[in-house]
Every structure is written in structure tokens, then in C-alpha cells.
Amino acid sequence: MYLIKQDSICKMRKFFQYNYSKPTFNYPKYIKYLSKALINNVVDYWFKQQKINICNLLKVAFYHMFLRQSNYIKDLGIVLDIFDENIFNIHDINTFIINISNLTTLQLHYSYIIEYEIFSKFLQLFAKNCKNLKHLFLEQFNEQHHHLNEISLIIKSQYGLKKFDYHIHTISGLSSDIIFTSLEFQKDSLVSLKLYNIVFKKSILQSIIKLHKLKSFEINSFHDMTLELCEILEFASFKLRKLIIKNKFCKNNITIQIIKYLGITLEILKVKYMDVKIMEKIVQYNLNLKTLDIDSNWNLSILSYLKNIKVKNLNLYLNTNSNEKLFFIRLAESLSDNTTHISFMTWKSIDKNNLLYFLNNCHNYIISLNFKHKCELEHLKVILNYVKKNNNNNLKYLRICDINQDWSVKEIEILNQIKEKGVKLAQFIDDYKE
User: Fold this and answer.
1) Among 69, 261, 358, 360, which is disulfide-ready with 233 (CB 3.0 to 4.6 Å)?
2) CA 200, CA 138: separation in Å to the nearest integer?
């Protein structure tokens, strides 16, 4: 392995000897976003072009160069194997730590167990010198809780942390309390909390309910949540605007209780693995929602509840079970008149006939029609006919994935006719705002 690495370095030296040119602009100085994944992809691509074996040393060297030379980094992503090439030392860290003192986003990825003293020193210096983080993303790939004291110190030392994401990719039987107790130091600023694969317990929930500024809460693939633990959420000090629940391992009565206790002030609710019982309770709780995202296996019985949920924005995640004529007819007939913005989220194009069934049977108050997939000529014809047949056309926005793609001449012609009817064409994005 050592000889292979040396051979790669030798080839790199020869390449740069014959291809060297002094840059006219000191671009590393002005780098604002530094992601190791981005550097890896670029270097890997270059290696393939030069037919040189991949060398991690070069990737780390580039990363080191940007950290050392840039004065404007705002978003930094760190994968811990950059400390595995003996490039970083305490002098390097003392040099570049000042360059990232105004960092606003830190993404810290635990790719494996790391016990390097130099990394611990880096985290300590970061906590001391970098106190302007707005967003901290922590991703943990192993069961060992290394350096959590240092990370806790980073959280506590921030002047006003607004977003915290915590992703754990293994189930160790428990989640560390120290991270959540440190979040209490940010209770006057934290507005967004995203948790993935967390093992819930009383102490963790008691810390969360103290975050009185929290507006957005996402829980994905959580474990050990009970009805008794759900009752703790009744005493939450915050008033949520957005709640996202994604958990196929969770019984629907747990999801229902979470919505019951946190849903009073909700404007946006996103539920994956929606079923009839959850929909029934959403109607019963009479939530004042503006946006509802539904992702389910699409039992047709779910659709009947839409008439009583008077949301403005309805986002539907479709699968093979929902790409049928009866589904789209029932959907159209079940839409509340208040639902004027509808999005179809699918990686596969909706059958043009199903789109026709939907538009022919739904009310005439749709303002925004959005597709998270490519629209082809036949789809555009269906939409144009829908606009033409409504004398008092209300459709104002048509959002399509890859709106800037290379359209055919005929497709451009149809798109122009749609625009002439007063419809604005735009790129589809998941969380658009009017």
C-alpha cells in the first residue's frame, strides 16, 4: 500500500512539473463553502482523468490548503479521516482556527471511531474561538460517544445557535444526555431541531421541552417512545410552526399523541406512513394547518378526510399504488375548496390520463400546480386544456422539476400558450413560498 501511494505521488509530481502555471487570482482566499465530500468528488474525477490511483493524501492536502488560506469560510464540513494523514498539527490548527472564527455552519461527521488528541484539541480551540454558529450538524456513525464533552462545549459557547441536526446511524441502546442538556444553553435562540435515530427517554424529552423558541421539530426513525413519554410533550414551552414525523417503526397511537400535544399552533404538518386513524385524529383535533404533507401507502379511505382538512397547501408523495385512475378521481372529488396549492411528489411521471382525470374532476380554484418530476408534451397539453376551459382561470403558478431543461419546439410552444393565459412558470422546490 505504501509503494502504491508513493507511485501515485510520483505521478502527481511529474504532472504538475509539466502542467504548472501560476494562478492569476488567489481563489482559495475567498472560499466560503468548504465540504470535504465536494473536494473528494473533484479529486476523484481528476485522478480518473489522469489514470492515477486515488490518493487520500492529496484530498487532505487540498482541504488543509483551503483552511489555511481562506479568510471567508462560512460553511464547513469535516469528516474525521482528515486527521488521519499526519498533516494537521497544533500549529496548523492555531493558524486556521482564526480564519473560521466567523463560521456560521459546521457539519461534523463521525465516519469512524477516532481518538486522536489533535482532534480533541481542535474541538476545544473551536469552542474557544468560534462562537457565531447558526447551524450545527452532527452525524455519528458509531456507537462510541467520543468527544461529546468537547462538542457539548461548542454548543454551550455559541452566542445564538438557531439550528441543530443530530443524526445517529447506529442504535446503541441509548442516546447521550450531554448533547441535549447542552442545548438548554441555547433555549433563547434555537428555532429548529432535527433528530434522526434517537432513542428517546425522559431526560432527553425534558431537555427538549425547555427550548421555548423552537418553531420547527423533525423526528425521524426514533425509538423507545411510549405513550407515557409522549405526555411530557404536553408541557412543552414552545409553540411549534412545523412538525415532521417519519417513523415506520412507530405505532400510529404514538404519532397521534405527538400531534395532539404539539399540534395546537402548527401551520405545517408532514407525516410519513400516514394512515386512516392518524387522518381521522387530524380532523378531530381541528388543527389550523396551512400545509399538509402526506406520504403513505394510499388506502383510498384516507382521501375522504381531505374534504374536512381545510389546508391551503397539499403535498402528496405518490407511489405505484397511487398511480391509478380511481385514486386521482377520488382525490379530485375529496379536495376542499380551501386547498388551492397542490404538489405531486414522485420520481416517476404521473400518467397523462390520470392527470386528466384529476383536473377534469377537481374544483376550479387551484392557484398553484406543482410537479416534482419532468412534464412531457402530453402533460403540458392536459394542463393547457385545463386552463383554456376555465373562463375564470385561477391557475397562477406552474412549477416543474427541471424547468430549465432542453424543451422541444412543440413543448416550448405549449409552454408559451400556458404563460399567455397568465400562468407563471417556475422551478419546483419542496418548501416554496408565495
Assistant:
1) 261
2) 17
